[in-house]
Amino acid sequence: MDLAAVVSACESTAFHAYFSLISPALRDAARGPLRRARHNGRSCSGVDRTRWCDECEQVVADHLLNGYARLRKALAGAPARTRSGEAVREMESAVRWLTSSDAARERLDLVARQMRRRPSDEEPRGVRAARAQLIYHPLRSIEARVRRTDAMSRGASAKPERDLRTSDWAKPLREDKAAFELLEDAVIRLRNGGLDLYDIPRGLLERLQLDPPAARRMLRESLERLRTLRPGFYAANVAGYLGEEALIPGATSQQGPEETFILEEAKESARRTLNKLLVAGPRTRARCQELLARLSGDVPPDGTEIIPWTMTEFGISVMAAERFLRRLVRLVTLADLDWVADQCASLRLKGD
């Protein structure tokens, strides 16, 4: 099939040719944004592993149909126009390229390979124009649009930061500017694929002149106020993006049988991991037992003390210590504080 088939008067021939020309490059360009927006960066695959999930396939199919419709309108003399009413020059250039006499002599599969390459000064102007208008332009802001669409489909806000900044119900949250900035940042990070509520950006900490432990305490208090003030907003825009272990204690609703089963699996997995730490080599074992005993004690350890202690005992940096402690706190919470405390006490009695 030659390139000129894309502008054939026969719709079925034209769409088949358009699909062959544009689809491979469009999928290449959409793969990364869709993974980030919908799969937290992991690969996307459907049930049979030979195609993407239905939602991502639908996004690509919609973009292909919309692009084909734009091209057919341009071929019919109604090209896309800018806000000032001028015809988009790149679309006009693409149309001239596809309708030129050379198009009938170019193999469609070879041009499709060209479309998948990065733009270069050496390639034909028509290839660059078609790539820009039929691939890159339709995918502009796709990541944000998919996140917003998915969020709205499960009852979350289209723009949660706007609701927090302008809604009357959120006025109490805005009284403390530093606490509100931390809350807003956390909600935006979740919407953009963040997995850790308390992984507060260093730049924000420096601007607010807060150390990590103080900022995390402030954020936890803000989240609890949000949950109390607007449970529905909290459930849709915070809890809906996190696992049970990352939420504020008591903030989740009653679980059904499936959720209970999943939590039990997570608990057993956490206990197995902690058991490995408790029976590690002699030196590591002693330090881990001491640290876990502190984390599971009746009185939570002060971050200003436990972080330096962890740095010294394990010989790691402050950032590594914070990440290590966050991971351990998560595991201890999942495994059950009393269980961890009992394990540590039992090992001390054995002199292990």
Strand content: under 5%
Helical percentage:
55-70%
Structural class: mainly alpha
Secondary-structure element order, as H and E? HHHHHHHHHHHHHHHH
Strand element count: 0
Cα end-to-end separation? 75 Å
What number of structural domains do the residues give? Answer: 3
Number of H- or I-type helical stretches: 16
Mean pLDDT: 82
- Gross geometry: elongated
Radius of gyration: 28 Å
Main sheet record:
none
Spans of at least 5 consecutive residues with low confidence: 244-259
List the defining traits of the structure above:
352 residues, 16 helices, 3 domains, mainly alpha, elongated
Topology (SSEs and partners):
Blueprint: H1 11-39, H2 54-75, H3 89-98, H4 108-116, H5 125-136, H6 142-153, H7 160-166, H8 177-191, H9 202-208, H10 212-229, H11 231-237, H12 257-278, H13 282-295, H14 303-314, H15 318-335, H16 337-350
Helix pairs in contact: 1-2, 1-4, 1-5, 1-6, 3-5, 8-10, 10-11, 12-15, 13-16, 14-15
Summarize the structure.
The chain has 352 residues and is mostly helical.
Characterization of this structure:
By secondary structure, this protein is mainly α. It folds into three domains: 3-142, no CATH class; 155-246; 257-350, no CATH class. Helices cover 65% and strands 0% of the residues. It is built from 16 helices and no strands. The chain has helices at 11-39, 54-75, 89-98, 108-116, 125-136, 142-153, 160-166, 177-191, 202-208, 212-229, 231-237, 257-278, 282-295, 303-314, 318-335, 337-350. The longest helix is centred in the first third of the chain and has 29 residues, at 11-39. It is elongated. It starts with 10 loop residues before the first helix and ends with a helix. 23% of the residues are buried.
